[in-house]
Amino acid sequence: MNMLLHAGEERHLCEICNKSFTEKGYLKSHMLIHTGEKPYVCEICNKSFIQNLRFKRHMLIHTGKKLHVCDVCNKSFTEKGILNRHMLNHTGERPHVCEICSKSFAYKHNLKTHILIHTGEKPHVCVICNKSYFEKGNLSRHMRIHTGEKPHVCEVCNKSFLLWSSLKDHILIHTGEKAHVCEMCNKSFAYKHSLKKHILIHTGEKHHVCVICNKSFSEKGSLNRHMRIHTGEKPHVCEVCSKSFVHRSSLKDHILIHTGEKAHVCEMCNKSFAYKRSLKKHILIHTGEKHHVCVVCNKSFFQKHYLNKHMLIHTTENRYVCHICNKSFFRKSNLSVYMLIHTGEKLYACKECNKSFAQKDILNEFKLIHTIKKPHVCDTCNKSFTRKRSLKKHMLNHTGERLHVCEICNESFVYKHCLNNHILFHTGEKPYVCEVCNKSFTQKCQLRKHMFIHTGEKHHVCEVCNKSFTQIGYLRKHMFIHTGEKPHVCMVCNKSFTEKGHLRQHMFIHTGEKPYVCDICNKSFIQKFHLKKHMLIHAGKKPHV
After folding, report:
1. Other beta carbons within 10 Å of 338
2. Its principal location (predicted)?
3. Given this model, what pLDDT does residue 128 score?
4. Which of 37, 191, 418, 530 could form a disulfide with 413 if both were Cys (CB 3.0 to 4.6 A apart)?
């Protein structure tokens, strides 16, 4: 070992790293860093230390002694140095300043870590996958991914976690605590990051912009998920049927189809649902709540998009007016259809049979009758189709697969549009309104069929007697007159009916059910028209006998 004279002092120099010390004992202690020797061993937990001072500090963990007490909050510490650092929380002092960006820190080790951001240095490297980190603690936590270690265990349910912070978040599930409160609307959150996300609703900030379509997002994660729309990436794959999804949440929802799990139960009627959002919608049936209210006429709706459609009734801008009778319409196409009432014109003619129609889309549908080519054939029943997607839809009739489930009553459907139409029966909403007579319908196709009443079109013709009908369904019913067929048979008395609705009403005779009830006197009836007749008594009118 070499000795140096420095400013009149004898210095002891380390031959390995050239670090110098004023005392020989300090040099000896320092040399243990190079040799790896740790002579001070704890008899309780076998942890070893290079320095006696660190060993003594460690022993306080086992004895539980915390001699150094904070005068402000009475928190106690095993070491005076830790107390001194703690005091900075009360004083707000940040004595350690970055020379590059002037950011200040309460603790020196925080400054050291911060400087690595400027240098880009990540000195702590994983020996397994070579991933590097600014801090040793981050590397230690990363290593648990490789070892599978989850040292932080919940005392309530024994679930274990990689990180202490994850355990802290998990414990809030058991306590129900929501300590983070929004100063703008007083909504509270269990997690600080949830509050930060929520605040963006008030500020409207969206810093993350898609470079392809310029759509902006408040969170980077939302942008990343949005990018999958452009890339077509679907990284979340179902292990049961291999169907893939853009979002993990969509996969989680999908898996419930396979498991059949329905964890969300209505407290009023005990009906269970796979999804929490389904339960929320269902509860509206019990409460009758309709949160979306029209500011013009106070009519309320279950869902916002139905309110938006309704608002068109009140809109006066950009109206299209009939020059004959001054009736106005929201859309030019609706005015064009309406004008046919006055003109009687049928501009669109079929080239095959010269049959003419008032609307082009109806002609296009009709032309399929003449189409001979139906290249897509069902292997099960040999029915053929003009379009491949039509065949795919048809195949669901054979497989019995019904993927589209009503969140309110759990009835399932082969096609999504059937589900959408079905939901309107629960909400009672009829968003499609006839601009001629203001009659409203649950389905767009019903409105289109209804419009034939105003246009006078009857393009479905009976081949037996040449009677024409506005709808193909009416023609089919009419054909039973010629065939004498009554396909709907009562299983109780074998009476048969031409229409399914007539059979349904007939069944009430056997069940004794009277579904149509008078709101005034509670008298009930099997058929709706009997109730209507009865209501005339309360109105002071005499029903026609």
Report:
1. 22
2. nucleus
3. 84
4. 418
The token duo for 473 is 């369904």
Mean pLDDT by 10 residues, the chain (545 residues): 50 83 82 82 83 78 76 80 80 84 82 82 84 81 81 83 79 79 84 80 80 82 82 80 80 77 79 78 74 80 73 64 74 73 73 74 69 72 75 75 74 77 75 80 79 74 80 79 81 84 83 83 84 83 56
pLDDT for 6 equals 47
CB count, 10 Å around CB of 408?
Answer: 20
Range(s) of the domain holding residue 50: 26-93
pLDDT at 231: 81
In a domain, 503, yes or no: no
Query: Cα–Cα distance between 183 and 293 in angstroms, integer?
Result: 27
As for how many domains the chain has, the answer is 1
Is residue 39 included in any domain, yes or no? yes
Q: Is the pTM of this model over 0.70?
A: no
Phi-psi region of 115 (alpha: psi -120 to 50; beta: other; left: phi over 0): alpha
Q: What is the DSSP string of 446-497?
A: HHHHHHHHHH----EE-TTT--EESSHHHHHHHHHHHH----EE-TTT--EE
- Is residue 57 included in any domain, yes or no? yes
Residues facing 413 on adjacent strands: 404
Q: Tell me what pLDDT residue 10 has.
A: 63
487 vs 476: CA distance, rounded Å: 12
- How do 376-377 and 384-385 pair as beta strands? antiparallel
Compute φ and ψ for 301, nearest 5 degrees.
Answer: -135, 155
Residue 58: CATH number of its domain: 3.30.160.60
Q: How far is CA 469 from the centre of its chain?
A: 44
131 phi and psi, to 5 degrees? -70, 140
Phi and psi angles of residue 35, each rounded to the nearest 5 degrees, phi first: -80, -20
Query: Distance of alpha carbon 9 from its chain centroid, rounded?
Result: 73
- Name the residue with tokens 């996969």: 251
Query: Which burial class, exposed, middle or buried, applies to 435 when counting CB atoms under 10 A from its CB (0-12, 13-18, 19+)?
Result: buried
90 in Cβ contact with 106 (< 8 Å): no
Distance of CA 529 to the CA centre of its chain: 44
Which pLDDT does position 344 carry in this prediction? 67
| pLDDT of 370 | 66
